[in-house]
Design a protein that fits this description.
InterPro entries: Ig-like_dom, Ig-like_dom_sf, Ig-like_fold, IL-1_rcpt_fam, IL18BP-like_dom. With about 160 residues, this protein is mostly beta strands. Helix content is about 0%, strand content about 50%. The strands form 3 sheets. Strands 5, 7, 9, 10 and 11 form a 5-stranded antiparallel β-sheet that branches. Strands 1-2-3-4 form a 4-stranded antiparallel β-sheet, with no helix packed on it.
């Protein structure tokens, strides 16, 4: 038996993101839980949904929203989710007016936490930075790291001119 559910998350920036979940796939005595296509471990109390490291292509000068989603089995624990830019809180960086952290949101009665980071416009500094989503609980700490590289367009990496 497979049960599918879908949820929409609205960020503080007005951007909607669809999270599709296969909450439970039961095959005889085997039970598999997936979130957005990634297996969720039943042994860990915290689990990043998606890869723990990724590199995103973006156009310099354009805005970008980075997302962090985590599955938590903790009902009583206090779980904290936050972003770091090169090891510092976004509000403590020189780019604090350009990089904004959203409020935390949750789904599934708090078992899935979500937090976004808005980069108002990508700069050369961002292309040399590491953006890290950190999630902590009493039992453990998990993190997701994202780097950004400039989008290349066509042969030679130049954008095509509009006529």
């Amino acid at each position: 038996m497979v049960i599918h559910t879908q949820h929409w998350v609205s960020s503080a920036f007005g951007i909607r993101m669809k999270l599709s979940f296969t909450t439970k796939a039961t095959l005889g005595c085997l039970c598999l839980i997936l979130a957005n296509g990634f297996q969720v471990s039943e042994d860990e109390s915290l689990m990043i949904i998606g890869p723990e490291y990724s590199q995103i292509e973006a156009d310099p000068g354009e805005p970008l929203v980075l997302h962090c989603d985590v599955f938590t089995k903790s009902d009583t624990d206090e779980t904290l989710i936050y972003w770091l830019v090169n090891g510092s809180f976004p509000e403590d960086t020189l780019s604090h007016d350009r990089i904004i952290e959203s409020n935390e949101s949750s789904l599934e009665k708090g078992s899935i936490l979500h937090k976004s980071l808005l980069l108002k416009n990508i700069t050369a500094e961002d292309l040399n930075s590491t953006f890290c989503c950190v999630v902590t609980s009493v039992q453990e700490v998990v993190q997701k790291s994202i780097t950004i590289k400039a989008t290349t367009h066509g042969c030679g990496g130049n954008k095509r001119k509009k006529n």
